[in-house]
Amino acid sequence: MDSINKEEIQKQFPQFEQPLLDGILKESVIKHLEEGEPIIQTGQYIRSNILLLNGLLKVYREDDEGNEFLMYYLEPGSACALSMMCTDRRETSQVKAKAVQSSDVVLIPAHLSEQWLAKYKSWHNFVIGTYRERFEELLQTLDSIVFKSLDERLLFYLKRHVETIGSEIRLSHQQIAEELNSSREVISRLLKKLEQRGAVTLHRNYLKVHNLEKV
Amino acid sequence: MDSINKEEIQKQFPQFEQPLLDGILKESVIKHLEEGEPIIQTGQYIRSNILLLNGLLKVYREDDEGNEFLMYYLEPGSACALSMMCTDRRETSQVKAKAVQSSDVVLIPAHLSEQWLAKYKSWHNFVIGTYRERFEELLQTLDSIVFKSLDERLLFYLKRHVETIGSEIRLSHQQIAEELNSSREVISRLLKKLEQRGAVTLHRNYLKVHNLEKV
DNA sequence: CGCCCACAGTGACTTACATCACGCAGCCAA
DNA sequence: TTGGCTGCGTGATGTAAGTCACTGTGGGCG
Question: If you average pLDDT over residues B26-40, what whole number do you get?
């Protein structure tokens, strides 16, 4: 905790003006998350904005039977749009988030975030921008489910993974299936087809992506 | 156009402070839409915020093969979140909107909207609130597709329709099928099952919803 | 070393939904 | 009236994906 200083925040959020940075340092809490640790849990009332300093978070939806569905990954320098809208979450399905890698997050109390919206232009722009980006991302995800078949969705998923995390995907077929709300066997078959076309190479517990475009 | 006055805007947007209302009256354009008229078209760069004064708009997604998918309806007093994020829309799938009923909308130039965010607290809250609501709504829609089967999605669709428009649904099976990105025959069969259970009564070109809860 | 166990491959089957083909009924207009 | 159009009902069939049951395999560990 003490190892996180102004410089680190400034590095990830260079657009923030000085007084805002000071405010963040003074008022916010920095929390370290171990790999796999949840940050937003079911039914929890969110009272803080969450900014990601380093590491990687995964934001996903879960239904009442425990089925998961990946919404998007959060990278350092970005914020969780969901943590910004403290609506009541009584629905059966819940948004959840957890750390994919060991991460550090900045927790900003909701009432301060509200104040800062009016006070700091850079904060305001950041919040609005976050909404926009996540909205866009959610729309893309929606598209891929409504209009595309599973093989196309898998491609979309792999591409996004390569962009955010890298071309070496350290997940089992089972885990990929869960993120797409599908089943292992189906994902295995589709991955095998991709391998035959030279797009990926499969290994135990991980796979490498080569070229998804020409598939 | 001249029949729309300050009182009408004030009635739909009572939370706006006086100077903001004056600004809207002075700077914005009011546009009338006939039933079925599009307001956001494919690939169009959106330069205005759209507020709905009266009537009803339908916001939907369309893919490159012309398949539609309903996102949500917009009622008077609300705004189109999408018109607020003027990102470039080069993706294959497009968000579109059109009038379901004859409607009047207020078009607010994007640069003014930006200014007003800092200037008027009520405008700021309105914009943030719009993002939140639409985000929530989109999440619910996402849920229903990812986790639910078509019969449940149809129920979800009917419920939403009843809430926003009323229990008499003046659409053909074909039109309902399109909004769910399904096919007429399947929707016909599912509707018939609902009729047998007493939840709806079917007619030519319209249907009446009685009680969806106990199904 | 051999045992175990999680991961992966595979064929057979089921299911949900789409698609096709056709018939029929109501309604408008020539 | 009659013809045609549009919306709706329905069986037959196709297809993508989920499920089940089983086999194979590689890697860690006693």
Answer: 90
pLDDT score of B50: 92
> A100 lies in a domain?
yes
Look at residue B14 and tell me if it is in a domain. Answer: yes
Q: Are residues A103 and A68 in the same domain?
A: yes
Does one domain contain both B137 and B155?
no
Is B125 touching A (CB cutoff 8 A)?
no
Residues of chain A with pLDDT under 50: 1-3
Quote the domain boundaries for residue A196. 149-209
Token pair belonging to A34: 């171990």
Closest CA to B127 of B8, B15, B10: B15
**B126 and B166 part of one domain:** no
Please, which pLDDT band fits residue B82 given cuts at 50, 70 and 90?
Answer: confident
Which residue would you say has higher pLDDT here, B47 or A97? A97
> In this structure, are A89 and A158 located in the same domain?
no
CB-based contact A205:A195 (threshold 8 Å):
no
Predicted local distance difference test score (pLDDT) of residue B2: 47
Q: What's the rounded mean pLDDT across residues B18-23?
A: 95
- Total structural domains in chain B? 2
Protein residue at shortest CA distance from C1' of C17: B186
Q: Both B107 and B181 in a single domain?
A: no
CA dist B30 and B104 (Å) reads 7
Is B1 among the domain residues? no
What's the whole-number mean pLDDT along residues B167-184? 96
CATH number of the domain to which A193 belongs: 1.10.10.10
Q: Write down the pLDDT at residue B1.
A: 46
Output the distance from B68 CA to C22 C1' rounded to whole Å.
27
CB pairs under 8 A between A and B: 91
How confident is the model over B57-67, as a mean pLDDT?
90
Same domain, A99 and A126: yes
The answer to whether the CB atoms of B118 and A131 lie below 8 A apart is: no
Of the residues A145, A176, A201, the one at which a domain ends = A145
Task: Report whether B50 contacts B39 (CB < 8 A).
Answer: yes
Average pLDDT over residues B186-213: 95
What pTM, to 2 d.p., does this model score?
0.91
Q: Do A138 and B141 touch (CB under 8 A)?
A: no
Q: Contacts for A29-32 with beta carbons within 8 Å, 24 or more apart?
A: A29/A106, A29/A107, A30/A1, A30/A4, A30/A104, A30/A105, A30/A106, A30/A107, A31/A104, A31/A105, A31/A106, A31/A107, A32/A1, A32/A102, A32/A103, A32/A104
| Residue B159 shares a structural domain with residue B87 | no
